Amino acid sequence: MKHIIILGDGMADWPAKSLGNKTLLQYSSTPNMDKLASMGRTGRLITVAPGFHPGSEVANMSVLGYNLPKVYEGRGPLEAASIGVELQPGDMAMRCNLICIDEDQRIKNHSAGHITTEEADVLIKYLEENLGSERVHFYTGVQYRHLLVIKDGDKHVACTPPHDVPGKKFRRLLPKNEISHALGTTAILTRLILESQKLLADHPINKKRIAEGKDPANSIWPWSPGYRPQMELLSEKYPALGTGAVISAVDLINGIGHYAGLRRITVEGATGLYNTNYENKVAAALEALKTDDFVYLHIEASDEAGHEGDFKLKQFTIENLDKRVVGPIYEAVKNWEEPVSIAILPDHPTPCELRTHTDEPVPFLIYYPGIEPDSVQTFDEVACVEGSYGVMKEDEFMNEFMAAHALRED
Question: What are the pLDDT digits (tens) for 352-364?
Answer without folding.
Answer: 999 999 999 999 9
